[in-house]
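Entry:
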Amino acid sequence: MIFRICCIAILSLAVPGCMQDAPTTAPVDYADILFVNGAVYTMDVNRAWATTVGLRDDKIVYVGFGDDAGGLQGPETHVVDLGGKMLMPSFQDAHIHPLGAGKEALTVDLNGLGSQEEYVAAVKAYADANPDEPWILGGGWSMAVFGPGARASKKLLDAVVPDRPVYLSSQDGHTGWANSAALKAAGIDEDTQDPVSGIVDRDADTGEIVGSLQEGAMELLTAHIPPSSPEFDQKSLKYSIDLLNSWGITAINDAIALQPELDAYRALDKRNELSVRVVASLWWDRNLGLEQIEEIRRLRDEYSTGNVNAGAVKVMQDGVMENYTAAMSEPYYVDGNPAGIPMLEPGHLKEVVTALDAEGFQVHFHAIGDAAISQCLDAVAAAIDANGNAHRRHHIAHLQAIHPNDLLRFRELDVIANFQPLWAYADSYITDLTIPFIGEERANWLYTIRSVINAGGMVAFGSDWSVSTANPFPQIETAVTRTDADGDDETFMPHETIDLVTALASFTINSAYVNGIDEISGSIEVGKLADLIVLDRNLFDIPAKQISETKVLLTLFGGRPVHGDLQDLLNR
């Protein structure tokens, strides 16, 4: 007998204990694992609840209630009594940089430090501990620590490491900080011209190179950094994957997959150590033209295997607001009245997206300013006009300032809004480095997640780690509260808060849609892969300000534990 307990009038609230039409199937064989007595949030189309889930091999074979599951239990079945704990689909991060995050963690990791003095001390400590390293590398410094423009001085680094090159990327990856030795190694001096896509910061009075490199100017230096070894890349990536699994993440969209990323993914996958499903977004080199599509096709064909799909292309259309490179329709309120940097001329962007769409690629855009967002939407519209709408699942990441006129276009053009929800509160980046330079009217456009949803658009979530934590729980809390998950209760634009159901969908089934695996993952349904997590609390039973404290007790990747232990769960 199949129980059908319906609460149709309040489906949108997804109230725990109100179990709506959980899908079931008659058992054909015994389950390998049988979860019972749980608060199972399926994330299916009805947002149904259940109590029991059966797994066989790597798939889900039963979802329902305990009285119907007796035939699944055999002599070898592991029966896990959840004791009311929450079981849900594992998380999927739709915009992340795991290799870079791992490298930062294993070199000079400035994430979490809060002053110039702490940064310099960390650099010195690493340099002293690694006297044979030819370059001192790392990142994670906050632009806010250096004030408007993020003009980080080479002299601070020269004082502690004068004899070796030092290069550190900012937390958001849009500014580099170099010492004099690194600038010299790259041939950057007072005669160096700014590239079209970036700025070499200089002293306004003397013209001396400051040490900070904005956007495309970073490439003038990074081209001279010796490549890391494949072994170090694999170690860094494995570090990140283990951490992601501990946060309940089993699928990702790598936002910039260069050759080192592709090779590291393939190496780990061959060793059965790649416990995430990966969409690798291949890099569109803005210094080249359409001729690079042939090479991008080759990479897709060569690296799309196993747990990796290299069928996406990353197009970066602008920079960030904090250094005035995010492309805006009206200028920033700073000297010179800059309006940002469109990385690709809008007409050329249309050609690029139309060509990629015709080749079957998903386009993964970076766009922060309202002008860049409009240009990306225009490019998708041009592709649809030329090719028809093949539903490539194009998506725009970041979306810091969406012009109100563009809100409806996400639904109209079938473009997914890929937000980084942890940024949607009034931190120093917003209060000190953004609002004073765009004004109050445009401040009302910042991270308008609810407005996109109200306009009918689909929203997915990604962390942009290591820019900010990949832990989904602080991100979910901020999306729901528009406050700092670390404790500040000041609500930023409360009308843009979203409910918990929507936030969870954005990190599961919606991100699975972006990743092209929603038919096999992202929800708990019979026939889908057993990508599941068990939490230490029911997210629907706690105050929103406690969501960030949630821990993952168990992560299953295709039915295989990759974090936590089934036996340990049985003993709880």
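The chain has three domains: 8-90+528-571, 101-222, 230-514.
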